[in-house]
Write a structure and sequence with these properties.
By secondary structure, the chain is α+β, with helices and mostly antiparallel strands. It is built from 28 helices and 27 strands. The strands form 8 sheets. The protein has a 9-stranded mixed beta sheet, sandwiched between helices. It has a 4-stranded antiparallel beta sheet with strand order 11-24-20-22. The relative contact order is 0.07. About 1% of the residues have low confidence.
């Protein structure tokens, strides 16, 4: 039965369980086996000295163990797929029908000839057989770079893995059968094989309908301009290879149409030669290579690996932000930069030398769906920051990747003809958050030419819980003109049965080539490029831009003119150590002077502060200087090492000259005056609250502080305008839309389900009318308190 047992998530869940079991085994062996421990420690020390990582050895080792476990599981997946589809002549692990019995018989025969071997040796024998079948499959098990050779599992763990693949269902048939199965399932496997890897690398496959849309806007015009001969394309964050497969099929189809009489394998080789990819994750690259290998065999109609000629697959393991010719910064022909240190698992430098993989200004088409996460490793973070001037603040990886994608495209500084095309779907956080200012104002507007800015935050895109935007451009200096902008009006009302047929996505397809069109879902405009020259970007359609401009133009002042400060009150960096219940503080004898209600953002709702948590307050109430009473110190003492080690600005609590018992940050000026206006850092709407003193506000509940001596009525005036519908509209236009936490981005049955990030920086720019609504502010406070 074709694809038996693969119609659900059962296989992915089972394989993830196998990875976890192998991790435990491999971690133990990486410590106890001298050969493995010495090699891993040596590589870590080299990487640390070369500033590729700032992680501890244990954290780095655990990540590598995950890669090794995934490599062993994936290796057996590849063997099983080839066994069931006849790509190799004989079975090693299992197979449907009689193939399972044949595999078991061959297994036993091997041990009769080599009684000293164990099941690990038999699995390795299968890997060798697949490697010998074709030069491309040999690359899947490369001894120099594949992590599976770094630590081998115990024979008991290998036996368990082998038995997993030979499990039978109640009918006696093998549980998993890969016969005639599309390699699409490997994409699901890619993002779900390891939860730790998924978080570390932000693993997420690009849906096919998104990939096709971006290729329509990049690959198609590039082929028209550059032709097929010598065409170079790349996805520098290729993951499981969706973009690469799409490019291969399109280019091959064009070659066949252009040269119908040319040998099929010659056209396949040409097409594969145009396709380049790279990814930091070794098992992502293994999956992408295998999928492209299978696509080539299918295109040629070849069923056996040993009947196929050699052909190129130019997909490498490496960090696209660091590796490649010209990646380490701007260079000219007189100067070169030494190659970035490469891990054992990274084979990118070999591809750099053989096909100029990741070569700066060498690609006609660059596409990608880069990771959206922030970089946790401090050393890695600084390495990207040094190389990409668009990186600032707590930037997301979408920022340096946006810059890198254009760097890889062919550059034309004079004639616009001949510049490379770039397309990407990426997180839209840079549009509103402060870290995106440099990318927008220095890079996008100053160095490249955007042609399309497409708001996809309202579309249902499976797996993309982060609101996204599609950016299309060409790598030549910006020209004064228009940008085709697709502006959001309304998100999907519910999850569509077929994501590609969702209402928002369908509207994008139908209206993209119709400027000045508007529907219930989007509006399309040819916008003056100057509009995208300034941060933040607002991609709201339905006339929202006109209303926003009207509000800004009609107001004489901004909030910063009326207030002293906007920002956090305190940052503890260990809330659990301080935020205790009244009963705990009472039983431990902590006096009332050492207690304060600590307000978090989710307590600031409906224009009131609801049920704040009582917290330990290690400060003198009159001088606001740090003081820990004996009772407070005794209560905090069990957490003293944790509190001493808190890090801010790159230094520990003690290195910053602070007492171990203090909060990590305490902004004294924001407590000298009792009156404050507080608001939630993340919320669906504007809920500003007047607090009359005696509370502490953490980082999720910032405060607005007026000048000393400001009356309660002056606070009410601001309270009235900040809680108005006009303020709500303005805040949602300039603040980062965090989505609704679902998997598909724009799914929200009600508008209020979308959460926004209201920052103090943005709030300072809030436009104030000449007359403030004192009456409304006072009435709102009275009603809310009541």
């Amino acid at each position: 039965m074709a694809g038996r047992g693969l119609g659900s998530n059962d296989l992915v869940k089972d394989l993830r369980r196998q990875v976890t079991l192998l991790e435990d085994d491999l971690r133990e062996r990486s410590d106890q086996e001298v050969e493995f421990a010495k090699a891993l420690r040596g590589e870590y020390d080299e990487a640390f000295d070369a500033e590729r990582t700032g992680a501890t050895y244990e954290a780095w080792r655990d990540e590598r163990v995950t890669q090794v476990a995934a490599a062993w599981v994936l290796g057996t997946v590849f063997v099983r797929f080839c066994e069931d589809n006849g790509l190799i002549g004989v079975p090693f692990i299992a197979g449907p029908g009689e193939r399972l019995a044949e595999a078991e018989e061959r297994h036993e025969a091997h041990f009769r000839q080599r009684p000293q071997d164990n099941d690990r040796d038999w699995i390795i024998e299968a890997f060798h057989h697949l490697s010998d079948a074709h030069p491309t499959t040999a690359g899947l098990f490369d001894r120099r770079h594949n992590p599976l050779w770094e630590v081998t599992p115990s024979f008991e763990a290998a036996t368990a893995l082998l038995q997993f693949w030979r499990r039978r269902d109640d009918d006696g048939e093998i549980r998993y059968d890969f016969t005639d199965l599309s390699t699409r399932f490997l994409g699901d496997l890619y993002q779900d094989l390891s939860e730790a890897a998924r978080k570390k690398y932000a693993l997420l496959q690009t849906p096919e309908f998104v990939e096709e849309f971006i290729l329509d806007l990049t690959l198609e015009p590039a082929v028209e301009e550059f032709g097929l001969d010598g065409l170079r394309t790349i996805d520098p964050a290729c993951g499981s290879g969706h973009f690469l497969l799409g490019i291969f099929h399109r280019v091959l189809e064009k070659w066949r149409a252009a040269e119908p009489g040319t040998d099929g394998w010659q056209l396949i080789r040409r097409s594969l030669g145009s396709v380049h990819g790279c990814d930091k994750n070794p098992f992502a690259v293994s999956i992408a290579r295998f999928r492209l290998l299978h696509a080539a065999l299918e295109a040629a109609g070849v069923r056996r690996l040993d009947n196929a000629p050699e052909f190129p697959i130019n997909i490498a393991v490496g960090d696209s932000l660091l590796h490649g010719r010209g990646a380490a910064g701007i260079q000219d022909d007189l100067f070169t930069t030494p190659e970035t240190y490469a891990y054992v698992t990274e084979d990118v430098n070999g591809f750099v030398r053989s096909c100029d993989l990741l070569g700066r200004s060498s690609y006609h088409v660059v596409v990608g769906n880069p990771p959206y996460i922030t970089v946790k490793d401090k050393t890695e973070n600084e390495a990207y920051r040094r190389r990409y001037d668009a990186c600032s603040g707590t930037y997301a990886l979408s920022v340096p990747f946006a810059q890198r994608l254009f760097q890889l495209a062919v550059r034309r500084d004079g004639d616009e003809r001949g510049a490379g095309y770039v397309g990407q779907i990426t997180a839209n956080s840079f549009m509103k958050r402060e870290f995106g200012r440099g990318l927008i104002e220095k890079f996008f507007f100053g160095k490249v030419n955007l042609t399309h800015v497409i708001d996809t935050s309202g579309a249902f895109i499976p797996g993309h819980g982060t609101p996204t935007v599609i950016l299309i451009g060409v790598n030549h200096p910006p020209r004064r003109g228009s940008v085709r902008a697709v502006l959001g009006v309304r998100g999907e009302p519910s999850e569509p049965p077929v994501p590609a047929h969702g209402r928002v996505w369908t509207a994008i397809l139908e209206q993209l080539d119709k400027p000045s069109s508007e529907s219930d879902w989007i509006s399309v405009e040819d916008v003056d490029s100057e509009r995208f020259a300034r941060h933040p970007w607002t991609l709201s359609g339905g006339g929202a831009g006109v209303v926003l401009n009207s509000i800004v133009r009609s107001t004489p002042h901004v909030l910063s003119r009326r207030v002293n400060e906007v920002g956090f009150g305190v940052v503890t960096r260990e809330d659990n150590a301080y935020m205790l219940t009244e009963g705990v503080l009472r039983r431990r004898g902590v006096g009332v002077d050492s207690q304060r209600f600590l307000v978090e953002g989710d307590a600031v709702r409906d224009y009131c502060i609801y049920n704040p948590t009582l917290a330990l307050w290690p400060y003198d109430p009159s001088t606001l200087k740090p003081v820990a009473s004996p009772e407070s110190e005794k209560l905090l003492w069990p957490n003293r090492m944790l509190l001493r080690g808190r890090v801010a600005y790159g230094k520990t609590q003690l290195e910053r000259g602070l007492g171990w018992f203090e909060y990590s940050m305490f902004f004294v000026k924001r407590y000298e005056v009792p009156l404050s206006i507080s608001f939630a850092f993340v919320a669906t709407h504007n809920h500003f609250v007047l607090d009359r003193g005696g509370k502490v506000f953490n980082r999720t509940a910032p405060v607005i502080k007026l000048p000393a001596g400001a009356s309660e009525d002056e606070h009410f005036e601001l309270l009235g305008v900040l809680n108005s519908s006009a303020a709500c509209f303005w805040l949602k236009q300039v603040s980062h839309d965090k989505g609704n936490g679902g998997e598909g981005g724009g799914i929200a049955s009600e508008g209020w389900e979308r959460f926004y990030e209201f920052t103090g920086t943005k709030l300072k720019e809030f436009p104030l009318p000449a007359q403030l609504p004192l009456t409304y502010g006072r009435a709102l406070d009275t009603l809310a308190q009541r």
